[in-house]
Amino acid sequence: MNETTATLRWEGGVDGHLMLLDQTRLPLDVVEVPCRTVEEAWDAIKRLVVRGAPAIGVAAAYGVCLSIKNGEAAVYDVVEACRYLATSRPTAVNLFWALSRMRRVAEAPTATSGPALAEALLAEARAIHDEDREMCAAMGRHGADLVADLPEGVGILTHCNAGALATGGDGSGLSPVFELARRGKRPRVWVDETRPLLQGARLTAWELMQRGIDCTLICDSMAAHVMRAGKVQAIFVGADRIAANGDAANKIGTYGVAVLAEAHGIPLYVVAPTSTIDMTLATGAEIPIEERAAEEVTEGFGRRTAPAGVRVYNPAFDVTPYRLIKAIITERGVFKPK
After folding, report:
1. Phi, psi for residue 217 in degrees, rounded to 5
2. Where in the chain is the domain with CATH 1.20.120.420?
3. How far apart are CA 200 and CA 329, in angstroms?
4. 3-state class of 175 per DSSP?
5. Confidence of residue 92 (pLDDT cuts 50, 70, 90)
6. Which residues are annotated as a binding site for substrate?
7. pLDDT tens digits, 97-148
8. Which of 18, 172, 239, 308 keeps 20 to 30 A from 93, CA to CA?
9. Residues 268 and 235 sit within 8 Å (Cβ to Cβ)
């Protein structure tokens, strides 16, 4: 992706605005959505215009900057913006981590309302964005090193989207794939479609094809067959929150992939920045799981596929126990869970 199709970017100075690549429109339409108010940023996060834990964090940081008026920031408005944006989605801890950083700028002992605070807020949001780019590159290097001894054409399975569309840089779960490609290893990627919103089909496959990486789309229910056929040597997924013991919350279906990986002796790696690790939660049982609208299952993309009135359970995430995770890859290195 280039500058015109970046996942997110800030346009202008302190009185500028946030531009988001509308991921609800991919892969058919490449459309940017401008966010000029805090409320518009909240709505974009809630509606999945921007998604992926790191990207949500960066978008929220820029969203706080939308509280700046006429080149000046008011401490009260900033704190209220942080509080409001925190209500958009409950599971991705990067959201709260980024908002905490923005709030600390506003509540610093030397901070006062005015132009200086406005500049400091935008500088902090840009720093969060820049740091994410650097973390993505580091995660890519560490992840690629883990499978460097596998032959050219290594088979890698993914679930959901953890590429550039989910971050401010080159991705988390897909960053090792991109790094392997840069090293000439020519990875072959098996892309789970990822029901019910098809982030794998719509987003991951699109990203990989944009970069010329060999990829094959499969239904989620085909993963076991592909593993048993010997086509997968490693699995890379992202995470929205990791508990202190190494349990990891990721898009619904990841837990099932992990169980299948253990059954077939395939290593599953969770790739996420350290900002995704929540040391306040002892285990994954404490991670709040977002439940989304029933219509995402019964009327996905505008066409009804289930009887009217049927009860629906639609959790957006599940938790993979640490015992099923081979390693957690962060920008600081590779760690064994627990």
Report:
1. -85, 135
2. 3-134
3. 21
4. helix
5. confident
6. 51-53, 89, 199, 250-251
7. 999 999 999 999 988 999 999 999 999 999 999 999 999 999 999 999 999 9
8. 18
9. yes
Q: Is 265 left (phi over 0), alpha (psi -120 to 50) or beta?
A: left
Q: Hunting for tokens 């030397």 — which residue is that?
A: 110
Residue type, 47: R
pLDDT of residue 33: 96
Q: 236: which 2 tokens?
A: 């890379």
Task: Return the closest-CA partner of residue 187 out of 139, 227, 235.
Answer: 235
- Which of the listed CATH numbers 1.10.287.1700, 1.10.3720.10, 3.30.360.10, 1.20.120.420 matches domain 3-134? 1.20.120.420
Residue 205 has pLDDT above 90, yes or no: yes
Neighbours of 14 (CB within 10 A): 20
User: β-strand 17-21 against 32-35: which pairing, if any?
Assistant: antiparallel
Q: Mapped to the 3 state alphabet, what secondary structure does 109-136 carry?
A: CCCCCEHHHHHHHHHHHHHHHHHHHHHH
**The two structure tokens encoding residue 232:** 């997968």
Taking the domain 138-335, which CATH number applies? 3.40.50.10470
Residue numbering of the annotated binding site? 51-53, 89, 199, 250-251
Question: Is 240 among the catalytic positions?
Answer: yes
Residues 6+ apart with CB under 8 A from 230: none
Q: Kindly report, as residue ranges, where domains of CATH 3.40.50.10470 are found in the chain.
A: 138-335
Which of 77, 170, 192, 240 is labelled catalytic?
240
- What is 7-38 written as a DSSP string? SEEEESSTT-EEEEE-TTSTTT---EEEE-SH
